[in-house]
Specification:
Helix content is about 70%, strand content about 5%. By secondary structure, the chain is mostly helical. It has a domain of about 230 residues.
């Protein structure tokens, strides 16, 4: 029996296919525009949510530990001179065990960033000089102790808190950048909201050229594809990016620098890295599809595992920023997903080619 051509069952001419594509694309674009209009009114919470990881990382690295910066800087310098610079840096980012604190340090509460520490003798001398009759001169035998005064709730404390808050917020490069970023985020949010409609229109066009068993694969694996993409993007945004930011900010502190975070570059960084993770998490699905269409059998995936590890390491290096933390954060889950793909491939035999199945 002669093999049937892939388009034997098609009743549409090439021009009709182009017209159908134009119609579905216009419907998808109209849906995207309408969703973008809706997203324009809800993009502010989205932008604030995108800012959270960088604000929290800056607060953790530059503010929460800010009261210990001078002592730690000196410790880092001394450690570098003695050959322990790497251990000092690892302590900065919390990746190496810190030195065991003394019993006194264990009992002391964490320092208050809005508290002043004043020498008691100097305080009494100042009070005596301001009003000698109300405040007697301190005795020479008086023991000096630190007096801590909290500024919380005072005008100065509120001003310092506001300055601290302002120092954590990402910056814009111009007066119009915030509005342009809002439009870009609205477009991206609108695409996410309209994605079911957009994919449906594209599916109506593509499905006309697929065999029934190929449509079955799409119906079966497309929901899994969406789940893997969302899982990869969420894993990146909520787990990987905070760790990467602390690593990168810790490196800045170790070198005595402080980054100026720009909102435009930060949003692009967060969106692109999350997108790369979402796409990379499609690995087990790609393996299953390649096995089902007999292009790459599961046996080859098992035999070439060492090459697969090398390729995954290269992909992780290309799709992530230059730091090793983000690379390992992608590489390790991909290695796990590769093994998951092997398990999924082993649950069913490889299908014959589409032409064999159509002619059978």
């Amino acid at each position: 029996m002669a093999e049937k051509d892939l388009f034997d069952d098609s009743t549409m001419s090439f021009g009709e296919h182009l017209e159908a594509l134009r119609t579905h694309l216009w419907k998808a674009i109209v849906g995207w525009v309408l969703a973008t209009i809706v997203a324009f009114y809800i993009s502010r919470p989205v932008i604030l949510e995108i800012q959270k990881p960088v604000v929290e990382a800056m607060n953790s690295v530059f503010v929460t530990t800010g009261v210990e910066l001078k002592a730690t800087d000196q410790t880092a310098v001394d450690s570098a001179r003695s050959g322990g610079a790497w251990q000092s840096f690892l302590r900065w980012i919390g990746r190496a065990p810190a030195e065991e604190p003394s019993e006194t340090a264990k009992q002391e509460p964490p320092p208050d960033p809005l508290a002043l520490s004043i020498d008691s003798i100097e305080l009494l001398k100042g009070l005596h000089e301001s009003d000698p009759r109300a405040f007697p001169e301190p005795s020479p035998a008086a023991r000096s102790v630190p007096v801590k005064i909290s500024l919380e709730g005072t005008a100065l404390g509120r001003m310092l808190s506001e300055m601290r808050y302002e120092s954590l917020r990402p910056r814009t490069d111009g007066v119009d950048e915030a509005f342009m970023i809002y439009l870009k985020v609205s477009l991206a949010t609108g695409f996410v909201l309209a994605s079911p409609w957009i994919f449906y229109q594209l599916w109506l066009f593509v499905a006309a050229g697929l065999y029934p068993h190929e449509r079955h694969y799409v119906y079966r694996y497309f929901p899994l594809s969406i789940f893997l993409f969302l899982a990869g993007a969420a894993f990146c945004f909520y787990f990987v990016i905070p760790v990467v930011l602390k690593f990168l900010f810790g490196f800045n502190v170790w070198l005595g620098m402080r980054p100026e975070v720009k909102i435009g570059s930060w949003i692009m960084f967060a969106m692109i890295v999350s997108l790369m993770f979402g796409l990379s998490f499609q690995l087990p699905l790609v393996m299953v599809v390649l096995d089902r269409i007999s292009l790459v059998p599961a046996r080859l995936f098992r035999e070439q595992r060492r090459w697969a590890i090398l390729i995954i390491a290269f992909i992780s290096m290309v799709l992530t920023p230059a730091d090793p933390v983000s690379m390992l954060s992608m590489m390790i889950p991909l290695l796990i997903l590769y093994e998951v793909g092997l398990v999924l491939c082993g649950r069913g035999s490889s299908a014959r080619s589409p032409f064999e199945m159509q002619s059978a």
